[in-house]
Amino acid sequence: MAAENIDEVVDELAGIVREAGRTGDRAGYFAALYRQVTVEVRTAIHGGLFDDGARMDRFDTLFGNRYFDAYDAWHRDRSGPRCWRESFGLLDDADTVIVQHLLLGVNAHINLDLAIAAARTSPGEAIHALRRDFLLINEILARVVLVVQDSVGALSPLMSLLDQVGARTDERILDFSVRQSREEAWYNAVLLAGQNEGEREATIERLDIRTAVLARLLARPGGLARPALQLIRSTESADVPAVITHLDNAMQRPSARQGTG
Q1: pTM recorded for the entire structure
Q2: Burial (Cβ within 10 Å: 0-12, 13-18, ≥19) of residue 47
Q3: Which of 29, 146, 257, 261 has the fewest Cβ atoms within 10 angstroms?
Q4: Backbone angles phi, psi at 49, to 5 degrees
Q5: 153: part of which helix (H) or strand (E)?
Q6: For residue 178, what pLDDT band results from cuts at 50, 70 and 90?
Q7: Rounded Cα gap, residues 153 and 160, in angstroms
Q8: Burial of 166 (0-12, 13-18, 19+ CB in 10 A)
């Protein structure tokens, strides 16, 4: 059943996190991150931080339902968008590290779903009035992502190796991914908002293919990243329910609150 408002999005995500923790399903990693983002967006709506709170409730609900549709399709018959199939297809791969699971979810949800949700919320010329709120929701996303990445550091002591082998010593992995992706998502939102139905379908198909290619690169990087990932995996927690619980509580820790206030 589709969520009808942001409260139902939060509740549905919480249910996925609980079930994943019970069964040891790594889908709970990204769901835990996403639940906290949605809670923060809801808090911002209630606090009057958006230009149009009701519009952002609709936006976030459409955004959330994109994820739920992909999640349900995968569990039903392994169908759904290509990029989400790439992400969900690695859930049983014990060699995939925690941050890869988070990046794969971020990749699919921002590079495909975010632009679609924005264009459906504000079609046509109305998309331009959404820009400030769109940027604010992405600031919230980036802030939560950084807190969760700090939380991952407690579970994966050698994760900083990925930055080093990627020659990004001054940028954290998830933050880099989010900042790059959200800029392009706005461009694609404006593009989709101005297209007719046939054009939108073609654009969404193109975005899905491109995002699936990115997912494969994230899942199976070359060069020095491959041995680095193997070393990271050997040192990080293999207790899936414990990892989910740790990630899901990231924003409740005092240090997180001080850093995001």
Answers
A1: 0.88
A2: exposed
A3: 261
A4: -80, -20
A5: helix 131-155
A6: low
A7: 8
A8: middle
Tokens in use for 235?
């040192």
Return the structure tokens found at 78: 């392994």
Tokens 């931080």 belong to residue: 49
Residue-wise pLDDT tens digits, 133-168: 999 988 898 888 888 877 877 777 666 555 544 544
Scan for tokens 């989010």, then name that residue: 178
Using alpha carbons only, give the angle 60, 61, 66 rounded to the nearest 5 degrees. 95
Q: Is 92 helix (H, G, I), strand (E, B) or coil?
A: coil
Quick check: 90 and 219 in contact, CB under 8 A?
yes
**Do 5 and 57 touch, CB atoms closer than 8 A?**
yes
The whole-number pLDDT of residue 137 equals 87
CA-wise closest residue to 127 among 136, 135, 118: 118
